[in-house]
Specification:
- The chain is built from 12 helices and 14 strands.
- The protein folds into 3 domains: about 1-200, Lambda Exonuclease, Chain A (Alpha-Beta Complex), CATH 3.90.320; about 230-295; about 315-430, no CATH class.
- The protein is α/β, with parallel strands linked by helices.
- About 40% of the residues lie in helices and about 20% in strands.
- Helix 1 (about 10-20) packs across helix 2 (about 20-30), helix 1 packs across helix 6 (about 180-200) and helix 5 (about 140-160) crosses helix 6 (about 180-200).
- The two termini are about 50 Å apart.
- The longest helix is centred in the N-terminal third of the chain and has 23 residues, at about 45-65.
- Strand 4 (about 95-105) and strand 5 (about 110-120) form a beta hairpin.
- The strands form 3 sheets. Strands 3-4-5-6-7-8 form a 6-stranded mixed beta sheet, with helices on both faces.
């Protein structure tokens, strides 16, 4: 985001940033207008991801060169009149691939990784261009599609028509692009784009608040926003409270954790959303948090036993149960590696046994996966009612993804049932193994 001669220039990063948090947009506008200083922040992991992303893009371009494709690179990293004009010149000339294409229309700008010539008529002639973006993610995220939509929209201003398709190339794909139809996402893109523009124009008129978002984990403003919420004693500090509950409490002029802790539910209270019991639960939570804060030490209370909730919702123990965990490192190689399959069982002698199966390369990573699946299948024959316990959703998701890949590209294991139990609930999921 930049202030260019009195108006705010926006990019794909600003579009995605607004989708994640409207307060982020407000802060960035104030920085662009020199009313606020950007906080100093450095995340070595983000820097590493940036470097790897650049290397992946370079590798894909080299792959195209080795295929004999004609590559035209637009110099520089900025989006100036010169780079925009150089991009247009290459398009008019009909160059096959244009790298780091600079695009601009009104307040929006973008640097597309790659434009590829296709034989679809446009105002340029009997050809036009489509967008290709290189990303490290194994699964294409919504923000990536929005970014592609912005580039497609800007591209349409140059060639007189939008591209029919947009593409993403990931490292694990052997450079085979994923295809997305622009018209499938264009309406949603226009809505997000319009909302971002409205928020930018209203900065200084309508104040936004730093509500906690998932984006906070990677945002440079995290410490500033967290400090403001704590100074305000915001209701979001109550563990387990929902946005709907915060909104409803606001209608009762309850805006801080301390106000909530001393609040008495009105007689006959019925929330607009949710149940009375859910409000009673967060009210008790707010009370003990405030009490602990004022006492200066941690406090706790034992909850009354409730059948079929919490730990009592877990199934009966089975001697064949497996307690399973995967350790991985996303920064090993270009794909990351799942280097440890660890699990604990009761062995044939009735003793606790922990198995740690390690992999330090791709061949052994595949081998430990296959060994674990084979072990589970044998164990289910001996203990049909067994479960696999794991902490979160990573383990079941990772195994199902590998099983799907195994079915599509390698040898099948046959059709089997795997039963999964996570830390909060019991679930039975059919997987194709």
């Amino acid at each position: 985001m930049k202030n260019v001669k009195g108006y705010i220039q926006l990019s794909a990063g600003d579009l995605i940033g607004h989708l994640n948090c409207d307060h982020l947009t407000s802060l960035n506008v104030q920085v662009a207008n020199r009313k606020l200083n950007k906080p100093d922040s450095y995340d070595p992991l983000l820097q590493l991801l940036y470097e790897r992303g650049q290397r992946h893009e370079n590798d894909y371009i080299e792959y195209l060169r080795n295929k004999g494709c004609q590559i035209t690179a637009i110099a520089g990293v900025d989006i100036s009149n010169a780079t925009v004009e150089a991009t247009k010149t290459a398009m008019v000339a009909g160059d096959e691939y244009i790298v780091q294409a600079a695009l601009k229309h009104q307040r929006w700008v973008g640097r597309a990784d790659i434009l590829r010539r296709v034989e679809t008529p446009s105002s340029l002639g009997d050809y036009s261009y489509e967008i290709i973006d290189t990303k490290l993610s194994r699964e294409t995220k919504g923000g990536t599609v929005l970014q592609l939509c912005l580039y497609a929209d800007l591209l349409a201003q140059v060639q007189g028509c939008p591209p029919e398709y947009m593409y993403v190339v990931s490292p694990w794909s052997n450079y085979v692009p994923q295809k997305f139809r622009f018209s499938d996402y264009s309406a949603y893109y226009r809505g997000v784009k319009s909302a971002a523009e409205v928020t930018v124009d209203l900065v200084g008129v309508d104040e936004t608040y730093p509500e906690p978002k998932t984006h906070c984990d990677v945002c440079r403003w995290q410490r500033d926003c967290e400090k403001r919420r704590r100074n305000d004693d915001h209701l979001c500090l109550v563990a387990g409270i929902s946005k709907n509950q915060i909104k409803e409490l606001g209608s009762h002029n309850i805006n801080t954790t301390k106000e909530f802790a001393s609040w008495q539910l009105p007689e006959g209270f019925r929330p607009e959303k949710g149940s009375v019991s859910s409000f009673e639960k967060v009210l008790a939570q707010a009370s003990i948090q405030v009490e602990a804060r004022e006492a200066g030490h941690l406090k706790f209370e034992f909850l009354e036993f409730a059948p079929e909730t919490g730990l009592s919702a877990l199934p009966e123990p089975n001697p064949g149960d497996i307690f399973f965990d995967i350790e991985s490192d996303q920064f090993v190689g270009e794909h990351g590696i799942e280097y440890l399959f660890g699990f604990s069982i009761i062995n044939d002698h009735g003793k606790n046994e922990y198995v740690a199966d390690w992999a330090l390369d791709r061949v052994n990573e595949k081998a430990i996966f296959e060994r674990f699946i084979d072990f589970v299948c044998r164990r289910r024959q001996d203990y049909p009612g067994m479960h696999i316990y794991h902490f979160g959703g990573y383990e079941s998701g990772a195994l199902k993804l590998r099983l799907k890949f195994q079915m599509q590209h390698q040898r099948p294991f046959g059709h089997r049932m795997l039963r999964w139990t996570d830390k909060t609930s019991t679930s039975v999921a059919r997987t194709v193994a």
